[in-house]
Design brief:
Structural class: mainly alpha
Strand order of the largest sheet: 1-2
Number of strands: 2
Largest sheet: 2 strands, antiparallel
Radius of gyration: 25 Å
Distance between the termini: 56 Å
Helix content: over 70%
Length: 562
């Protein structure tokens, strides 16, 4: 039998063996970091507190609880309310950036993407300063409280906006100018052209943006925890069951309940994405807007209004972190940034967060690029490549809190080697890589698909190992995608709360967790200071990445120039 295996393996080239090893490594990693924790969570939902098998009893008890209907209704209502509001605002903003000649488009785009660089806790803290019980503009709410659905809608709307904006910029930026030329020749009015050309061509982008916002809304934990008050949603219910009541079985049931709409949204989004790809054509002519005074002025006013609101929200959080004692002593101070003296955590959370971001970005980028190359450029093992792709796509459908709870059940085992990982930084690095794997994987695949297939054929004909061609040609040619994946992983690891809320220990507490705990204890100024540092760190690395990109790309991407 050993001879049979030896003869079988000798028929394979070294490149085939390398591809096989990489595919098996990727499948093992994604299965161990995604599927097995989810299965462990599902198993826990079918057990009682003592680990005894009770079947669907937990689900029956949970769904018969009088508060569940209200919680599910609140969650869905928020998603259905926030989604059209955010998509409408983002569509107008993206339209102004791509279809007008208004001045300052680069600045407005930068302002619109600022929420990507901050945890969702920061806009919630800012809203407390603006409209809380001691807020400077609480009268604008007409006597209503910010602690509840109003605050959640405002906070999540701000935080979800850039996700919709990026999708819609892409959708509107790929329109075919020939359609508009045909409409002009046929004498179509601007309104009719908008209704019959612009909206139909952007419909898949609108659907994709709506699905993304809806998923983020129902899965977010930070905003609802800080400013939700007594308004219960599924994400906070999971936290309450696990942390507040130590009822891990019902926490698992709530996680399964939250996972179902996320999976449905993922399936629909995948369908919409395929339609967007089918709609694109290589013969399309890029649309170039022409100056129009009225349209450009209206676009400037629209973007200016929302940009001012965004800056006011971010600026208030920064200002609140610098005020001596809100609202009685408004003199400026840096005392709230002296974490060694005013916080039980000190600077350790911020240091841990920088480590988490760096390790996630370095290891995640390398892993994603290598595995994407093994999937895309390999010629063998089609079933393994398809399985790898399926697992890579599935991580996008799993909310961070659900994945974190699954890690508790799978890794928190004192009697096994896996138990030594629980509460450590490496486990949180793994959770962040798995949680944000899909976007990085798709970015790497898109970059690899742009490279001509002839590169591998030439390497084979010259008897050059494919791994050497990957190192010398594919990797430098894919540098823009590498940098994008790196900064995406770094920023998300810096700002995440839900993916690590159940995984930290006293030695591995993160800045976002410290912000949550500080705000819980009433130290809002220190929480705002820590959240501001997260924003500044993420923005600094982003600016460094942009500067590095310009320098490196001029030396490695000249071949892309016509």
């Amino acid at each position: 039998m050993a001879n049979g295996w030896r003869q079988h393996l000798t028929g394979w080239s070294r490149d085939s063996l390398i591809q096989l090893v990489l595919l098996l490594l990727g499948i093992t990693l994604l299965a161990g970091g995604l599927l097995l924790p989810l299965l462990a969570m599902l198993q826990k939902s079918l057990q009682d507190l003592d680990g005894n098998w009770v079947g669907l009893t937990n689900f029956r008890d949970y769904f018969l609880s009088p508060n569940l209907t209200r919680t599910i209704g609140n969650t869905l209502w928020l998603g259905l309310l926030i989604t059209p509001l955010v998509v409408t605002v983002a569509f107008g903003y993206a339209y102004a950036l791509t279809r007008t000649c208004m001045p300052g488009k680069g600045l407005f785009r930068l302002i619109g993407l600022i929420p990507l660089l901050m945890p969702s806790l920061l806009p919630a803290i800012s809203l407390v300063y603006w409209f809380g019980n001691q807020g400077i503009a609480k009268e604008l709410l007409g006597g209503e409280s910010i602690y509840g659905p109003i605050g959640i809608v405002m906070g999540l709307g701000f935080w979800c906006f850039p996700h919709a904006l990026m999708i819609l910029i892409t959708a509107l930026g790929h329109s075919d100018a020939r359609l508009y030329e045909a409409a002009r020749v046929l004498g179509s009015s601007p309104l009719r052209t908008f209704l019959t050309v612009t909206l139909p061509t952007a419909r898949y982008g609108l659907l994709s943006a709506a699905i993304a916002v809806f998923t983020l809304t129902i899965c977010d934990f930070g905003v609802a925890k800080v400013i939700g008050g007594q308004y219960s949603v599924l994400a906070t219910d999971i936290y309450r069951q696990v942390i507040g009541m130590q009822n891990f079985s019902l926490g698992a049931v709530a996680s399964v309940t939250l996972l179902l709409p996320a999976l449905l949204s993922f399936a629909l989004e995948h369908r919409v994405r395929s339609k967007m790809q089918e709609q694109s054509s290589s013969k399309s002519v890029p649309y170039r807007p022409t100056p129009h005074k009225v349209r450009d002025l209206l676009a400037l006013l629209w973007c200016g209004l929302w940009a001012l609101l965004f800056l006011a929200l971010v600026g208030m959080a920064v200002y609140g972190s610098l005020v001596q004692f809100w609202p009685y002593n408004l003199s400026l101070t840096l005392e709230h940034y002296a974490f060694d003296s005013n916080s039980v955590y000190g600077w350790q959370p911020f240091t841990n967060t920088l480590k988490l971001g760096a390790l996630t970005a370095i290891f995640g980028t390398g892993l994603i690029m290598v595995l994407a190359w093994a999937q895309e450029k390999g010629c063998h093992f089609a079933p393994l490549r398809q399985l790898m792709h399926l697992l890579a796509m599935l991580s996008l459908a799993v909310p961070g809190m659900v994945l974190g709870l699954g890690y508790i059940f799978f890794f928190n085992r004192p009697d096994s080697l896996l138990g030594s990982l629980y509460g450590t930084l490496p486990l949180m690095v793994l959770s962040c890589i798995i949680h944000y794997y899909t976007v990085g994987h798709m970015t790497a695949l898109t970059s690899l698909k742009q490279l001509p297939r002839e590169l591998e054929l030439v390497a084979i004909s010259l008897r050059i190992p494919l791994i050497k061609a990957f190192w010398r040609v594919t990797l430098p040619a894919s540098l823009p995608a590498l940098l994008e994946v790196f900064i995406y992983l770094f920023v998300n690891a810096m700002t995440t709360t839900s993916a690590v809320i159940f995984l930290y220990s006293s030695d591995s507490v993160l800045a976002s967790i410290a912000v949550l705990n500080m705000e819980d204890s009433g130290d809002t100024a220190a929480a705002a200071a820590m959240a501001t540092l997260i924003l500044l760190a993420a923005a600094s690395v982003k600016l460094l990445q942009l500067g590095l990109s310009r320098t490196l790309l001029t030396h490695t991407q000249r071949w892309r120039q016509p």
